[in-house]
Design goal:
The complex is a heterodimer.
Chain A lengths: L4 E3 L2 E4 L5 E6 L6 E8 L3 E9 L2 E5 L6 E5 L5 E5 L8 E8 L9 E2 L3 E5 L1
Parallel strand pairs in A: 2-11
Antiparallel strand pairs in A: 1-3, 3-8, 4-5, 4-9, 5-6, 7-8, 9-10, 9-11
Chain B lengths: L4 E3 L2 E5 L4 E6 L6 E7 L6 E6 L5 E4 L2 E5 L5 E6 L8 E8 L7 E3 L3 E6 L1
Parallel strand pairs in B: 2-11
Antiparallel strand pairs in B: 1-3, 3-8, 4-5, 4-9, 6-7, 7-8, 9-10, 9-11
Classes of the chains: A mainly beta, B mainly beta.
C-alpha cells in the first residue's frame, strides 16, 4: 500500500460528459502529480501541484483541469470527454516538489468512454 | 510526449535466471527511478538513484545510474514467479518541478 488513495477505481461514462477524479496523497506529502497511462502513449505527465499551487504542466489538454485543496487532496476534472480520453489516470505524491523526490503512485482510476 | 528508450520490450525467462534491462535518453537526468507495475495496480517504486555512477541494491534488484547521466540499468538476480510484471524506468530533471519521464516498459514473464 503506497498510501496514495484514488477514487473512484473505475468510471464509465459517455462522450461529451464531465468527470472528477480524486486523489489523497500520502500523509506528509505536499506535492501531487497526475499522469495518464494509455496503450499508445504510455505513462505521460499531466500536471503537478505543490502545497496548493500549480508547479508544472505537461501535455494536459485544455479540457482537463486540476486543483489541490487546503487539505492537500487533489482533483482532476475532465470535460467534454472524447473516446480517446479512455485511459488509466494515476495520481502520485512526494514529500516536496523538487527534482530529487521519489514519487509514490496510487492504484489509478480506469476511465472508459462509451 | 517525451519518452525514454527502454529495452527490451519483453522478456521470457526461466525461474532462477538473471534479468537485465536498461534505459537510455538523449537528455541528462538528475534522478533515475525504477518502478514495477502489476495488473490493476499503480507503479510501485523499486529503486531511486541520485548520483552519476551510483549503484544501489534492493534485495535481488540492483540498479545503476550511468556515468553520462543519460542511462540506467536494472538487474534482477535469481528471478522468481512473483517478479512477473511490467518494469518502468523514469528520469527526473532537477529544475522542472519533479515530473517523471517514463520509458515504454519491459514486460517480464517468468516460467516456473
Amino acid at each position: 500500500d503506497s498510501g496514495v488513495t484514488q477514487t473512484p477505481k473505475h468510471l464509465i461514462t459517455a462522450t461529451g460528459q464531465r468527470v472528477t477524479l480524486r486523489c489523497s496523497p500520502r500523509s506528509g506529502d505536499l506535492s501531487v502529480y497526475w499522469y495518464q497511462q494509455s496503450l499508445d502513449q504510455g505513462l505521460q505527465f499531466l500536471i503537478q501541484y505543490y502545497n496548493g499551487e500549480e508547479r508544472a504542466k505537461g501535455n494536459i489538454l485544455e479540457r482537463f483541469s486540476a486543483q489541490q485543496f487546503p487539505d492537500l487532496h487533489s482533483e482532476l476534472n475532465l470535460s467534454s470527454l472524447e473516446l480517446g480520453d479512455s485511459a488509466l489516470y494515476f495520481c502520485a505524491s512526494s514529500r516536496m516538489g523538487g527534482g530529487n523526490q521519489p514519487q509514490h503512485f496510487g492504484d489509478g482510476t480506469r476511465l472508459s468512454i462509451l | 510526449g517525451q519518452q525514454l528508450n527502454q529495452s527490451p520490450q519483453s522478456m521470457f525467462i526461466q525461474e532462477g535466471e538473471d534479468v537485465s534491462m536498461n534505459c537510455t535518453s538523449s537528455s541528462i537526468f538528475n534522478t533515475w527511478l525504477w518502478y514495477k507495475q502489476d495488473p490493476g495496480e499503480g507503479p510501485v517504486l523499486l529503486i531511486a538513484l541520485y548520483k552519476a555512477g551510483e549503484l544501489t541494491s534492493n534485495g535481488r534488484l540492483t540498479a545503476q545510474f550511468g556515468i553520462t547521466r543519460k542511462d540506467s540499468f536494472l538487474n534482477i538476480s535469481a528471478s522468481i514467479p512473483s517478479d512477473v510484471g511490467i518494469y518502468f524506468c523514469a528520469g527526473q530533471f532537477y529544475n522542472q518541478g519533479g515530473k517523471l519521464i517514463f520509458g515504454q516498459g519491459t514486460e517480464l514473464s517468468v516460467k516456473p
